[in-house]
């Protein structure tokens, strides 16, 4: 395995975003006079994008008898306010996982093309990587609303492969959920799954990724087959 193009899922793979996603959601619910939700439950809803998370939160409240939460259109009506709360919380309580910067540095130094492929809407995904200083590692960020489809549709992977002239053998997806595994399978590319992310309430191992990694440092081995590029100074 010596991929030249490596695509990274964002939430649960590069950055632990669950705390601020539940902070933003609960800030919205409190502002609307609705009951707040246990962060552990919110964490289990991450993976399909922010709007979908809001839909699930409202369904959860409706099932518990909260009036108005189950009204058709409730999620769309609340989405602009949720977006404002989320933007205000983005990058505050989230943390980049250990070794991420060191690995991305090494991969870039060895000439790998790196992209983010997230189901989080582009503006939020961009804000998360920007606020954590990760932006310059990536040549492209595809969010859940960048293209007509999102994961598990293989469109995002195919788009990157076309753009960077990579075939299935020279592409790798690194993700944390069964959605990522399904996306990679649909595109015919290998998938390495991280063990520490968000996969609803089950271990991602059940989705049978090609490899399960226990630490981000495992990705250092992807640099073993390429000589480091000469650094070109701009000064
Ligand atoms: O925001 C989400 O729900 C998921 O985002 P991810 O695809 O980066 O895990
Ligand atoms: Mg994820």
Automatic annotation (TrEMBL):
Pathway(s) where this gene product acts: Organic acid metabolism; glycolate biosynthesis; glycolate from 2-phosphoglycolate: step 1/1
UniProt cofactor(s): Mg(2+)
The reaction(s) this protein catalyses: 2-phosphoglycolate + H2O = glycolate + phosphate
Gene3D superfamilies: HAD superfamily/HAD-like (3.40.50.1000), Putative phosphatase, domain 2 (1.10.150.240)
Protein name in the entry: Phosphoglycolate phosphatase
GO cellular component, one term: cytosol
Active site as annotated: 9
Subunit structure: Homotrimer.
Record's keyword terms, sorted: Calvin cycle, Carbohydrate metabolism, Hydrolase, Magnesium, Metal-binding
Family as reported in the entry's similarity comment: Belongs to the HAD-like hydrolase superfamily. CbbY/CbbZ/Gph/YieH family.
Entry binding sites for Mg(2+): 9, 11, 176
HAMAP family: GPH_hydrolase_bact
